[in-house]
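chain below, 135 aa
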Amino acid sequence: MELPEEIAAMRAGTGDPGALLGEFRRAAVLVPTLGPNADQLLTRSFGGVRWILAFTDEAALARFARESGGAPDEPWEYASVLGARLLDAVIPALDGPTGVAVDVADEDGSMLFPPVPGIVPDEVAVGSTAEGEGA
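prediction:
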């Protein structure tokens, strides 16, 4: 299955968490970029966690742009990034707990990948022994 189908299965209660995470790691997701050189990823903070916003396709990104008040003809810069790269390289380079929120404008198709052991590297996971050792 592709990522949207894995998300749908998980939300329906029939999914396999390992298959979902594996598909996310293999998927190229679209991450809006900001800054003068498009060198910053679009994030939102909620509950003490920074969430990198990622989208499964341009249509999902466009829905988010519309819901965020963007003009219909306003272009959004984005990077295509493998989910594994977000989890294994980008998140460890950021300060504080960070997860990934996929397709946040899709009420029935969104999914969170929180900064917990088994999803992000142990050294940056919330609640891991590695986190406590560095604190």
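Residues 66 and 100 are 20 Å apart (CA to CA). Strands lie at 28-34, 40-41, 43-46, 49-54, 78-82, 98-102, 111-113.
thats it, cya
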